[in-house]
Specification:
323 residues; six-stranded antiparallel β-sheet; 2 domains; Immunoglobulin-like
Length: 323
């Protein structure tokens, strides 16, 4: 009889917990999902390339006292951002990037790329402006301009018509006359990529391997890598915690281990942050690694215990990335 009462009591408690705790949480989860579905759907959507011209090396032009434009005809809408291929040879100059449907009319959308975000070495870089709706097969103009005596170099190619859906133009400052550069330089097209939304997935958060302590006046190597769900190539940028942030490095193969090096200028505790993105521009969350740089190396530094601790820390980050 006592066993029966105990079993009945346990059963009643179990039912109470299921009804009182689990069931409301299920409905709450469903309600939350229903309320947040649109927001999550927008936030998690990826990017895909619509129009592009990526043949470079045969031609480049320096922005002087004029603007340069590349026309294109989109297939998809909306237009959400563009990539350019070039670099700046004069520090302290921001870059204005805009889209128009007529070179003589107002901008449809635009963004100012701060000088520190314009690469000082030849590479692709992102220009993320407010989204706009575009019409398929209608001509639009990608226009770039640099403050003052511009020193941005935009790369492209000519003679072979690598992008038959557009032309290039230049506009002297303080004038309204646009000149067709494709007539002067046969079939010239600058390097660009236009993006719309797609179902691309961002890479996983990067793994960071390296020493967590050492001398502040010595170079320290760190290994980073990230896997992309579609096996796309991956780029990395690094915030070293001392007001030094790298430009995007790469691209590298998905999962390829990359060595990055840094020297801190003074002793202290720092947080290394690394972010990855695939070649379509979808970014991962930041990964972090706390390090301490002193005048003298700790006994712990480069010891077997240091390696064990680093491996344990990286394993924890790996588990966080999975769950």
């Amino acid at each position: 009889m006592r066993k029966l009462l105990r079993l009945t009591l346990i059963t009643n408690i179990t039912v109470f917990l299921i009804v009182g705790l689990v069931v409301p949480n299920i409905f709450a989860a469903n309600e939350s999902y229903s309320q947040d579905f649109r927001f999550n759907d927008i936030q998690n959507i990826g990017f895909m390339i619509d129009q592009y011209q990526d043949n470079e090396g045969a031609f480049n032009m320096i922005l002087g006292t004029f603007r340069i434009a590349q026309s294109f005809k989109p297939n998809l809408t909306p237009l959400v951002k563009v990539d350019l291929f070039g670099y700046s040879i004069n520090d302290g100059k921001s870059l204005e990037v805009s889209i128009r449907d007529n070179v003589y009319e107002q901008d449809l959308t635009s963004v100012v790329i701060p000088a520190e975000d314009v690469p000082d070495q030849l590479s692709w870089f992102e220009c993320d402006f407010p989204d706009i709706e575009v019409e398929a097969d209608k001509t639009y103009y990608l226009i770039i301009n640099q403050e003052g005596d511009g020193q941005f170099i935009w790369y492209g190619n000519y003679q072979d018509d690598f992008y038959p859906r557009g032309y290039t133009y230049s506009n002297q400052e303080y004038t309204s006359n646009w000149v067709n550069l494709s007539d002067i330089f046969q079939d010239l097209d600058f390097c660009f990529k236009t993006y719309t939304y797609g179902d691309n997935q961002a890479p996983n958060s990067p793994v960071i391997n390296g020493s967590i302590s050492g001398r502040f006046d010595e170079n320290h190597d760190y290994e980073v890598y990230s896997f992309d769900p579609e096996n796309d190539e991956v780029l990395y940028r690094v915030d070293w915690g001392d007001d030094t942030i790298s430009q995007w490095l790469g691209p590298y193969e998905s999962g390829e281990k990359v060595i990055i090096t840094h020297k801190w200028g003074e002793k202290g505790d720092y947080v290394i942050k690394v972010q990855s993105k695939d070649i379509y521009g979808d970014k991962s969350d930041w990964s972090t690694l706390e390090v301490s740089m002193s005048k003298n190396s700790f006994i712990f530094y480069n010891s077997p215990f240091s390696k064990i601790f680093n491996n344990l820390q990286n394993f924890i980050l790996f588990l966080k990335d999975i769950f």
